[in-house]
Amino acid sequence: MRTKLFTTCVAAIAACAAATAQGEEKIHELRASPTTVHRGFFDASLKPVLTIDSGDIVRLWTTTGNPRYFESLGVPKEKIPAELYAAFEGAPGEGRDDHTLDGPIAVRGAEPGDTVEIRIRSIDLWLPVAAMSFRANRGALPEDFPYSRDRVFFIDPAKKVIEFAPGIVVPAKPFWGVIGVAPPPSMGRVPSGPPNVFGGNMDNHDLQPGTSLFLPVHASGALISIGDGHAVQGAGEVGLSAVETSLKGEVQIVLHKGMRIGWPRAETPTHYMTIGLHEDLNIAAKIATREMLNFVVETKGLSRDDAYMLLSAAMDLQVTEIVDGTKGIHAMLPKAIFQK
Description:
Largest sheet: 16 strands, mixed
Number of helices: 5
Number of domains: 2
Strand content: 35-45%
Mean pLDDT: 93
Order of helices and strands: HEEEEEHHEEEEEEEEEEEEEHHEE
Radius of gyration: 20 Å
Low-confidence stretches: 1-22
Oligomer: single chain
Structural class: alpha+beta
Shape: globular
CATH architecture of the largest domain: Sandwich
CATH class of the largest domain: Mainly Beta
Helix content: 10-25%
Number of strands: 20
Distance between the termini: 17 Å
CATH topology of the largest domain: Jelly Rolls
CATH superfamily of the largest domain: Acetamidase/Formamidase-like domains
């Protein structure tokens, strides 16, 4: 088991918690349905649809694509999966409802001042229909596209590719665009579009299987919600949309008592990751850099001066997304440079 090195003290806590979790883990299933999802917002007052213990595993099926949306684009009803009709029964409107989120999932014992670790064990394409769009006067080039457009894709989940156009095949790299906990209760109900300190719509395509995402807890139970399935998305999501689709996968959720972090962090099999979120991309870069600087000082025994130089030599800043109002930068520092 990998020990998370956020601080020496936290490492010990994490190891003990993970060892306990491994011996007692249970497997839960959470399928998108009218009673297990919420759409378009985060709210600390939401009642959990599932309550688990630290170390438990949750198998997820998340849905994207209100059938009325596909019907409005001319897709015959027989080509729209029955699972979408069931999941969106009673849902208002004719939008695609990308942010149809499974949850919230409560973790017993989670309180503000703790951290939840979401270990992404698997993510796969599920249903064979997907869509992509851009909207008038939005995205990275609003002045170039004063009109809207939608496209539907039919994909074979087993092939794991998107046939974008004749002779253009894009390999699938599925991930959930939204993984978040409840915001601080003082924030009330917030839209799920802009990400924030609670995570949410980070649209980070590097949150792949084998990665652990760490989120600070702001409300009792943490109240984790997951959805916004992406078959593939480029860094930046410049046109406002990924190839949006329904996914299935599995996560393990571990509670770290007393582990305090200010912003979402992650650890991939090869890199440490810190995440900066702000309306100003420059400030997002500062947040990601400062979070990594603090992490290196806390865990690697370097002075701030030396850590700052190390980041300039070895850390990469990646644009996560630029189109959700709140922009994202994630910093990537290779583990391999640390040889002890």
